[in-house]
């Protein structure tokens, strides 16, 4: 899947104050890179929480011509804690919205923002696929 993003709106952090632009940008960048169908699978694996557990799924998706036409647009990032953010995004297929204003979770792992595995599993379920790695995922 591919992602193109724009961050909008004023987000607030867990303290109620403005979220640093750098945090929103880092979350957005992780989502854009993860969903970018032109990027190699290895890079995407590193951008997903527990990505190694999903390596075979991500590698298989990398072979799909459909996935290579997919992009995401990040509409809003709201940080809800030091290691968690809610991302509102849309998925585009050949430039046409296929999933609009969907919400997902980004998590900070080892100092880097990543796509939450629960969000990835939710998207896989919408596609009719639920790999074994999703059975242990706590969906948020």
Question: Which descriptors apply to this entry?
Answer:
alpha+beta, 6 helices, four-stranded antiparallel sheet, about 30% strand, about 140 residues, single chain, Nuclear Transport Factor 2, Chain: A, globular, about 30% helix
How would you explain this protein's 3D organization?
This protein is an alpha+beta fold and 140 residues long. The chain has one domain (21-135): Roll (Nuclear Transport Factor 2, Chain: A). The protein contains 6 helices and 4 strands. The chain has helices at 21-34, 41-46, 55-61, 65-68, 117-126, 132-135; strands spanning 70-81, 84-93, 96-109, 112-115. The protein has a 4-stranded antiparallel sheet. The longest helix has 14 residues, at 21-34.
Question: What is shown here, in short?
Answer:
The protein has 140 residues and is of the alpha+beta class. Helices cover 32% and strands 29% of the residues.
What is the CATH class designation? Alpha Beta
Radius of gyration, in angstroms, nearest whole number: 14 Å
The CATH topology is given as Nuclear Transport Factor 2, Chain: A
What distance lies between the first and last C-alpha atoms, to the nearest angstrom? Answer: 21 Å
Helix content: 25-40%
How are helices and strands ordered from N to C?
HHHHEEEEHH
Number of strands: 4
Shape: globular
How many DSSP helices? 6
Strand residues, percent: 25-35%
- CATH architectural name: Roll
Low-pLDDT ranges = 1-18
What is the quaternary state of this protein? single chain
The biggest sheet, with number of strands, parallel, antiparallel or mixed sense and barrel status, is: 4 strands, antiparallel
Rounded average pLDDT: 83
SSE class: alpha+beta
Strand order of the largest sheet: 1-2-3-4
Total number of domains: 1
């Amino acid at each position: 899947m591919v992602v193109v993003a724009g961050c909008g709106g004023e987000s607030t952090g867990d303290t109620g104050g403005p979220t640093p632009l750098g945090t929103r940008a880092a979350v957005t960048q992780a989502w854009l890179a993860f969903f970018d169908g032109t990027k190699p699978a290895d890079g995407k694996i590193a951008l997903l929480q527990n990505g190694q557990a999903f390596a075979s799924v991500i590698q298989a998706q990398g072979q799909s011509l459909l996935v290579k036409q997919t992009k995401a647009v990040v509409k809003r990032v709201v940080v809800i804690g030091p290691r968690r953010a809610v991302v509102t995004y849309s998925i585009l297929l050949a430039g046409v919205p296929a999933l609009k204003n969907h919400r997902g979770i980004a998590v900070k792992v080892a100092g880097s923002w990543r796509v939450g595995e629960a969000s990835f599993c939710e998207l896989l379920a919408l596609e009719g696929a639920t790999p074994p790695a999703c059975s242990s995922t706590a969906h948020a």
